[in-house]
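Researcher: Let's do a round of design. I'm pasting the structure tokens now; please hold your answer until I've finished.
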């Protein structure tokens, strides 16, 4: 029988919160995520979450349109705070305590990120949501997820996507692409596979942090992944 992970960092894309909407946050999606998180809590797993902000604003897109990259990235960080608050609200409607910890100080709505405080919240059974990325521009929320996972001593990073794992090529463009059950960090970097950005993958490799990529659009997959079932693609040494 599979054994649940003790402490997990779940990485969600901002686009995941859009649902069928062209942008923004779909309350139905946050509710569905919250119900799955409630199931995970029954396993006794300590859960931390990092959410992107691409459903509201993406710094690189702003830079491509002529905006200063640093300014665009800070705007993207604020978008992640909005997403974090929306998910926190949905989680607490499931009677699960949660805390939003922000890398950018905004005390009225979130606690400042302090590693020891984050760890203590997890030990007390609270879901911890890390907002505002790393707090610095030029870093993605993928890198923030890798950094936070290392800081809190997570067992694994789980990246929830719209595909069921990592393929040898883009399965949409190449029908002959094969799904991989396992791959090394170095292969991901050398082959340029779009799993996470290179900085995030390198950080995982240096700290021997396993990374699982799986499809979150299938209901129940978050529970399956965290409970230790074989699902998606694992990236490790």
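Researcher: That's everything. Go ahead.
Model: Designed sequence:
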């Amino acid at each position: 029988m599979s054994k649940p992970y003790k402490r997990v960092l779940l990485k969600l894309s901002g686009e995941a919160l859009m649902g069928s909407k062209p942008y923004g946050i779909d309350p139905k999606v946050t509710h569905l995520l919250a119900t799955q998180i409630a199931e995970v809590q029954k396993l006794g797993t300590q859960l931390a979450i990092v959410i992107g902000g691409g459903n509201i604003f993406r710094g690189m897109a702003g830079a491509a349109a002529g905006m200063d990259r640093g300014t665009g990235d800070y705007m993207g960080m604020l978008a992640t705070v909005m997403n974090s608050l929306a998910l926190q609200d949905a989680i607490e409607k499931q009677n699960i305590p949660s805390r939003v910890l922000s890398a950018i100080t905004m005390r009225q709505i979130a606690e400042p990120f302090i590693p020891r405080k984050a760890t203590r919240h997890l030990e007390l059974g609270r879901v911890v949501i890390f907002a505002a990325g790393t707090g610095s521009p030029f870093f993605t929320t993928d890198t923030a997820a890798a950094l936070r996972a290392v800081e809190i001593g997570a067992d694994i990073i789980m990246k929830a996507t719209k595909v069921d794992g990592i393929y040898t090529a883009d399965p949409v463009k190449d029908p002959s692409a094969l799904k991989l059950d396992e791959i090394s960090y170095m292969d991901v970097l050398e082959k340029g596979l779009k799993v996470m950005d290179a900085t995030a993958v390198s950080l995982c490799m240096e700290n021997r942090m396993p990374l699982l990529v799986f499809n979150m659009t299938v209901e129940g997959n978050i529970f399956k992944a965290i409970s230790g079932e074989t699902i998606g693609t694992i990236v490790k040494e």
